[in-house]
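Example record

One chain of 168 residues, shown exactly as stored in the release files.
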Amino acid sequence: MRVIPTLSLLLLGALTVQVYAAETALPDALVAAGEKPVLTLHAEGAQVYECKTDKDGKLAWTFREPIATLVADGKTVGRHSAGPSWEHQDGSIIGGRVQGTAIGATDNDIPWLKLEVVPHRGGKGVLSDVTTVQRINTAGGKLEGACETAGQFRSVAYSADYVFLRKE
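Predicted structure tokens for this chain:
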């Protein structure tokens, strides 16, 4: 008898998630008109910061690079790293340049991004025809403020979804 209520709750939860996702609009700054998704991958990793002197001569945390595992269906399918760049297990590699930003959901979340792909490297594969990358659904990763020792590094855990798009 407990199976039916549990199943009902699971189905209700799934419907709620689908409705919420359908109501969530992509910020205008991230829209890629005339493009369609090729692949969406989840990333789990860290944003790496370095303690450096800022323009005011004070020590502050400065973003250095991301390092993350790209996951699809619970399996590792690639890596995300400095550049920024994305490498798929099929050998295709792309880099990106920021074209648009939108704030994250909380003060601790790195921004959502729209990136233009520059250049394609590596072999032919799923990323070969990608022209735009969107970083959405970010959680964590942000580090701001003063630091004490120049050259010190700190990593902040983050997750995000990366949507890879190509021209229609």
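Notes: The longest helix spans residues 3-23.
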